[in-house]
Amino acid sequence: MDSQLLNVLALIVSFLLFIVLALKITSNLIKTEPSPNIPPGPWKLPIIGNIHNLVTSTPHRKLTDLAKIYGPLMHLQLGEIFTIVVSSAEYAKEIMNTKYLIFASRPHILAADILFYGSTDIVFCPYGNYWRQLRKICTMELLTQNRVNSFQPIREEELTSLVKIIDSHKGSSFNLTKASCVWHEKQKPRFISVLKEMPLGAGFSVGDLFPSAKWLQLVTGLRPQLEKVHRQMDRTLEDIINEHKKQKSKDKYGQGEAEEDLVDVLLKFLDGNGSNQDFCLTMNNIKAIILHILSEFDSFEDMFVGGGETSSSTIIWAMAEMIREPRVMNKAQIEVRDAFDLKARVDEICIDELKYLKSVVKETLRLHPPLPLFIRDCEQTCEIKGYHIPVKHRVVVNAWAIGRDSSYWTEPERFYPERFIDNPIDYKGTNFEYIPFGAGRRICPGSTLGLINVELSLAFLLYHFDWKLPNGMKKEDLDMTEQFGLTVFKKDDLYLTPVTARPILNREASMHGKKGA
Ligand code: HEM
Question: Which residues pair with 8 in a beta bridge?
Answer without folding.
Answer: none
